[in-house]
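HUMAN: Mind making up another protein with tokenized structure?

ASSISTANT:
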Amino acid sequence: MLVHIGRIIHKKMLGKYAVPAFNTSDLEMTQGIVRAAEKQKAPVIIQTSVGALEYAGIEELIGIIKVEARQASVPIALHQDHCHDFVLIKKLINLGYSSIMVDASHLPYKENLKLTKQVVSYAHKQGVWVQAELGRILGNEDWQNVKSGDDLMTDPIQAAEFVADTRIDTLAIAVGSVHGIPVDPRIKKILSTLKEHVDIERVRQIRLKVKIPLVMHGASGVPDNQIRAAIKYGVAVFNIDTDLRVAFNKALRTNIKKNPQIYDPRKLFRPATDALQAMAERKLKLMKTSGHAKRFKNN
């Protein structure tokens, strides 16, 4: 069932479990995610990136997600990941997204604040949640490429001020996770100097100051024990994309290599979709999301 994100993400869950926000860009990825949620009886967030919308077509991709979600017995929310285009944000809200991330983290603080407040003002009138980011996350994400900077980590005191001023619903924090698979030598060098992938103490300090649900982007490469620790301190959503892509791609390549005679894309993609589903199920179990769909009624 397609539901508002506010039915999935709420204060009562904080410190107990989290919900993964899985990226999709096509039919196979969407089906794999939904099947994983069904199997684990878990609520999930399916999210799109600007790049995915450009690749598949806005209404085409949204149509696929909505059809799959509405046919599912588990609650599924539709969220837009990193977006700084206010025109596109308005369009997506009108097309049925219940949550939008306005990403102005590349701008100076005051400009980030200004754009975020504008989006919140518009979105809240439509009953739509807004996520914003304070600090910047290493790696590539559509139009951004962040290569360095301990100073780009989220400051707990500033985070509290930002949340109070903007009235956002969820806050994406920069605490050491990385978008994508690090290939840039500068990013690799930074990561090699870290004792831990994620600054859990910073997560704890942010949680003491910020009472809304926290979101961790670039969670694919974060070790399991740090995912569990971050959940303890109020991270309610973990964005997962790369791990799904890697699982899908690995299975697809293996199938093509083993069965070079197959030319039907459906037969080529089936094992890849299954592998993506298995990875999604693993994440649902890790975050203790499994079973939390039971309290929802299909209405």
Notes: The first helix runs from residue 27 to 40. Residues 136 and 246 are 24 Å apart (CA to CA).
